[in-house]
Amino acid sequence: MNALARLRPTHLTSTGIVYLVLVLVLVLGAVITAAAGRNFFSTGNISAILTGTSILGFIAIGQTLVILAGSLDLSVPYVASLASLLGGVTMAGQTCNIPLAVITALGVAALIGLVSGLVVAYLHVHGFIATLGMGLILSGYLGTNFKGSAGSAPRDFRLIGALNIGPVPLSTIIMLVCAVLVILLLRRTRVGHHLYAVGGSKDVARLSGVRTQPPIVLAHVLCSVLAGMAGLLLLARLSVGSPTIGTQGGYDLMSIAAVVLGGTVLAGGKGNILGTLGGVAIFAVMDNVMGVMQLNAFLQDVVRGLVIVLAVAVYARRNADLRPARFDRSRAPRHTPAPTTAGSAA
Amino acid sequence: MTSNDAVAPTASTPTQPVLRATGLTKRFFGNPVLEDVTLELHPGQVHGLVGENGAGKSTLMKVLAGVHQPDEGTVEIDGQAQQFSHPIQAQQAGLSTVFQEFNLLPDRTVAENIYLGREPRRGPLVDTAAMRRDTSELLDGLGVTGLDPDRTVRSLSVAEQQIVEIAKAVSYDSRIISMDEPTAALADHEVELLYAIIRRLLDRDVAILYVSHRLKEIFDLCDTITVLKDGQQVTTQPASELDEGALVRLMVGREMSAFFPQPTPGTEVGEPLLTLSGSGNGYVDGVDLTLRAGEIVGLAGLQGSGRTELVESIFGVTPLTRGTLTLDGETTMISSPRQAIRRGLALITEDRKAKGLALGQSVLDNALGVVRSVFPGRTGEARTSMPGVLSSLEVAARSLDQEVQFLSGGNQQKVVLARWLSVDPRVMLMDEPTRGIDVGAKHAIYELMRGLAADGVGILMVSSELPEVIGMSDRILVMRDGRLAGDLPRGATEEDVLALATGADEHEEVVA
Q: What average pLDDT does the structure give for chain B?
């Protein structure tokens, strides 16, 4: 079996491509930064890049889950803003309020995700619409109830945003722990397998005896909770909650872009968290280099836009028309398994 | 019990039937598609199910599998009456079905597909190692080697996908497996592999219900054969009492009706319009054909023989890469549907809803779709004449603004025709032009085809319905395995076509 596997040309997986691009961006970034007379690999700069990954990382991990399940979440920036406000107001500068504040913020986020998930799974409203509506509702609530920043994070909580272990910020470590847990969920739990199945084809999943709703609901709940965590991290960094912090970051579209850049198929059913982390890292490195180069904001957006579109064009080419050919002369004939009676496959 | 004396198992295996279906009847919208069908499946035996398209084979399988519920009749497994409302229930009772269309997730691995919904666990986590090991054992048990459980289904050949599908059915510990044309997409050497798997299943006393159009396979594998025609059970006999000729006669067994209009008087077969010589690409190979003005040529063949691929290749959907294509005496290349349309070709697609129409758009917008995009200068003219065209086709729509999704299949197909008539094609490629439409609309489309031929249009018609192929074609081309297997003149019989399509002709020559 292994002998035959070795005969096959080794294909680069989409995650492989993502990390290849990341390496390319890193090398390019190092060269450009060096040309500008700065050290790309200085502890400070690496720490800055990693800090840049953590907030988008949380949101993009959640977004990967909903996209894999065949849905989408556009309400994440509002959930993040709301979590930062709920957290800040509940803490009110007191260390002893931190546990309650975290539970409140994440609990409300989970509830929002639960509602979106139920609407998507049971009312068959596409996630795009369901979460667009949810986002509008939250936006209205935030706009009428909070005229500006509110609440305050105590010093102990602010440390989460400021502490570094070596060059690695604590916030990045928390984000990576979440990523590992979600990878475990996707690879090693039934609901994770079923999430891929439901996103790939609801009919196939149903015919195989899978209940199709729970994975969708779970994906939305987790996505919302992760957006809530991003909001709390923003609170730790800014020390106040803000009704516009989520939308300012453009986390809805940026997270979708990172997921797609990471090789996850927008239609669902194919992709993984590692790719998404690669996508987030590519954005963080690009932002860092463009910041160092003091590229103007317009050009920065142009570069980001081009990278996203080019990446997806590459994936689309790879996936184009995979109907197996009957008469393909350009490739060797396909290997077909043989009955054992015919002898061993050596 | 008394009603199925004819189903007595062959003398060598005096077993109890594992499945007994009695008096199964199924109606769709009042039309019976299955009437009073009775059959028994025995452990370790293959029961063949044959019949023409529309004879009710697939419906019977779906009723047994729990996809459809019978209106009358009973299904017993091991003597216990069963009522399935979902395929999962049938699987749990020991009956799995390998449907014609694959039920696999292309981006998941072989192991993940086979154990979907039943992933083995250790503690709260999925035991992926066990899943892989079980998959290997399962495949080993079927005599399959070299199929890595970790490969994604997308990377497999069609034959390998078919094996995964069968392995999945086996993994439910099914004692009954029904297979709907499992070889439709397989090449000859791959069929051998399937045979080997089926023999292993029979050694384990699995009962198999086997649907195939390929009669050779039926005789290679089956102990008992049931013939269906128009939803009725023509016969159930031991295979040893039948031969291919007898089977084809039982399947066809009807008088050619006067249903098909004769060629319009004055229709002249003229100059060649479209000529292919040695043409091929990834899907078809070595195709030589000539289509003349005023001619209706039928393109017959089994499911998966490459008929749709051929017309799509001519139309530039998957362009031809080998051979030469001559249009009006001029050698040319067609590399996109747009080019094809500009050169006077039209393609009526097999799947009207997915590829033929924009369902949410109006009748008028659909009818003008091709003119607008390819000949924008002629849109105004087409718009003026369209109401006349639609009414001459007798399209029954409330208004030109009605969305086509609310029309019946026959009326939708007429809108498709109007869409193409508005660009005056010289060559019309029609893929299953009357699939799923009522008799009245069928007749109207046949008349229209005759009328177009009289006007000098050349028509290449793909059809799975043999009476239609024979009734409408001036000549019949038969495809097999992506190549043209033969060319039959008008007056050929269904037996002739089937013989070429199944390769039974070669088989008989060997016998003779």
A: 87
A332 Cβ under 8 Å from any chain B Cβ = no
Nearest partner of B400 among B390, B410, B414, B408, judged by Cα: B390
Interchain pair B116, A208: CB under 8 A? yes
CB-closest option in A327, A335, A339 to B482: A327
Q: Is residue B449 part of a domain?
A: yes
Q: Is the ipTM of this complex over 0.90?
A: no
The CATH number assigned to the domain with range A42-316 reads 1.10.3470
Residue range B375-384, pLDDT digits in tens: 999 999 999 9
Q: Does the distance separating the beta carbons of B144 and A337 come in below 8 Å?
A: yes
pLDDT at A155: 94
Give Cβ neighbours of residue B139 (< 8 Å, ≥ 6 apart).
Answer: A337, B145, B147, B149, B163, B167
Instruction: Check CB contact under 8 Å for A336 and B157.
Output: yes
What are the tens digits of pLDDT across the range B464-511?
A: 888 889 999 999 999 998 999 999 998 898 888 988 988 765 544 433
Q: What is the pLDDT of residue A11?
A: 58
Q: Output b/e per residue, B146-160; b: 16+ Cβ within 10 A.
A: bbbbebbbebbbbbb
Whether A325 has its CB under 8 Å from any CB of chain B: the answer is yes
Asked if the Cβ–Cβ distance from B146 to A210 is below 8 Å, we say no
Q: How far is B429 from chain A (nearest CA, A)?
A: 22
Q: How far apart are CA A191 and CA A188, in angstroms?
A: 9
Strand order in the sheet with B458-462: B345-348, B427-431, B458-462, B296-301, B475-480, B483-489
Please report residues of B whose CB lies closer than 8 A to that of A70: none
Of A272, A273, A76, the residue nearest A177 (C-alpha): A273
With H, G, I as helix, E, B as strand and everything else as coil, classify residue A311. helix
Contacts of B136 in chain A (CB under 8 A): 1
Rounded average pLDDT over A262-282: 93
The answer to whether B414 touches B444, Cβ cutoff 8 Å, is yes
B-chain residues near A345 (CB < 8 A): 145-146
For residues B412 and B431, membership in a common domain is answered with no
Q: How many domains does chain B have?
A: 3
A15-41 burial, b for 16+ CB within 10 Å, e for fewer? Answer: bebbbebbeebbeebbeebeeeeeebe
Residue A288 CA to residue B378 CA, distance in Å, equals 55
DSSP alpha helices (H): ranges in chain A?
A: 2-7, 14-35, 43-68, 76-91, 98-122, 127-145, 155-162, 170-188, 190-200, 202-207, 213-238, 245-249, 251-261, 273-292, 297-319
Separation in Å, CA of A150 to nearest CA in chain B? 42
Closest to B107 (Cβ–Cβ): which among A269, A326, A327? Answer: A269
Residue with tokens 């667009």: A132
Q: What is the CATH number of the domain that holds B329?
A: 3.40.50.300
From A270, A321, A335, residue closest to B146, measured CB to CB: A335
Do residues B65 and B13 make contact, with C-beta atoms less than 8 angstroms apart?
no
- Cβ within 8 Å, pair B145-A345: yes
Q: How far does the CA of residue A322 sit from the closest CA of chain B (Å)? A: 8
CB contacts < 8 A (A, B): 126
Among candidate residues A73, A69, A14, the one with its CA nearest the CA of residue A197: A69
Of A189, A340, A344, the CB nearest to B143: A340
* Test mutation, A8, A187, A207, chain B, max B CBs within 10 A: A207
With a threshold of 0.90, does the pTM exceed it?
no
> Mapping DSSP to helix (H, G, I), strand (E, B) and coil, where does residue B75 land?
strand
Range of the domain at B492: 272-344+425-511
- Give residue limits of the domains in chain A: 42-316
